[in-house]
Amino acid sequence: MMNKEKKIAFLLPSNVAGGAERVMTSLANYISNNSSYNVCFIFFDKENEFYSLNKEIEIINLGLDLKKINKTKKYLMFFTYIKKLKLCLKMVNPNIVISFLFITNIISVLCCKNLNIPIILAERNDPKHYSKKQKIIMKFMYRMSDGFVCQSKEISEYMVKKFKVKNSIIIPNPINGIQVGSYVENKNKKIISVGRLVKQKNHKLLIQAFSKIANDFPEYKLYIYGDGELRNDLNELIKFKGMENRIFLPGVIKDTIKINNDAQLFILSSDFEGFPNVLLEAMANGIPVIASNVFFGTVKMLIEDNKNGYLFEPGNENELTQVIEKALINTSKLNEFARINLDIPEKFSINNIANIWMNYIEIFIN
To answer: CA 100, 274, 124: angle at the middle one, nearest 5?
Structure first.
């Protein structure tokens, strides 16, 4: 039994179905099982348990019902967040804090600087797409962190130049063994996409592009997994296109990609992304992929166009339509892409990525 003396506190707004949430819970579980650290997980939201955490991990909910608080009120409750988190950190007394996502980052860095606790922040999205107000706050707050984790060289350079972050490091997202199923050679005629039903993910573009070529490939169906504020709008668009029997919105399902690893194609249609976990997961499961070539280069870290997948320019409906058509005409090439990507689970394994994290954490702990 390890003698665990040092403690890491992980912070997130909530434990819901999202990429940042999956990455942080995977890291917490791995570090809890494979290091000399005690691990504590602090959530702002009072009820959330989408991703499982080890029994050894102490879980603290600050008791805020974020689902019932609109965006404006969340900012008005800023000092309530600070008070609750500060009291919690005094009780937990961690050696270091690791925080993901904007609101948690801002609150935690203020609390940690006041309590003299080292803190590492991580940027999980395209920082250019934050609002002007958010960027002003980031400019003053992010430089206060002790360390900063980014997901591509381009994002790191931007964060250092724009927000003067210190000790920036590039760490990609991991893939956990439980996310990967057996490779399926003979694919079914279905196309999948996974992501929140919000503007950023641009499922409208995907629906319009698929609708254009659907009659040419009558056996294929499109399944867009996820939930969000645009569900009704997307349903209306599907009806308008007459695609009710070809395009489906099944909602949020655990291990969506793993249980759909017989899909012929995965499509990421986002306008912007940080490091797209769902794309990494699809490739690891042997699903051929098409993805938007997002601005900060994280998708190009995974895909070389026409070598192990297809890229298209974000927001370009005609190009996406053409790429889907090209892919479905030549499925043998798609299967070749899938086989090339089967080394993804090893390359981005939780073991490799978590060890980079732990070496980085050690820099800031006395």
So the answer is: 5
Helix (H, G, I), strand (E, B) or coil at 25: helix
Q: Name residue 337's amino acid.
A: F
pTM for the complete prediction? 0.85
Collapsing DSSP states into helix, strand and coil, what is residue 358?
helix
| E strand segments, the chain | 6-12, 37-45, 58-64, 96-100, 119-122, 147-150, 168-170, 188-194, 221-225, 247-251, 263-268, 289-292, 310-312
- What phi, psi does 349 have (nearest 5°)? -65, 150
Which of 229, 255, 282, 269 lies closest to 70, judged by CA? 229
**For residue range 171-216, what is the model confidence (pLDDT) as tens digits?**
999 988 888 888 998 999 999 999 999 999 999 999 999 999 999 9
Residue 120: its pLDDT value, please? 97
Quote the strand ranges of 180-288, DSSP E.
188-194, 221-225, 247-251, 263-268
pLDDT at 3 over 60: no
- Give the list of residues 6+ apart from residue 268 with CB closer than 8 angstroms, or none: 193, 195, 276, 278, 279, 289, 290, 291, 292, 299
Q: Report yes or no: 130 and 76 within 8 Å, Cβ to Cβ.
A: no
Q: How far apart are CA 342 and CA 287, in angstroms?
A: 9
User: Residue 166 and residue 330: Cα distance in Å, rounded?
Assistant: 47
Structure tokens that stand for 238 in this block? 């599907």
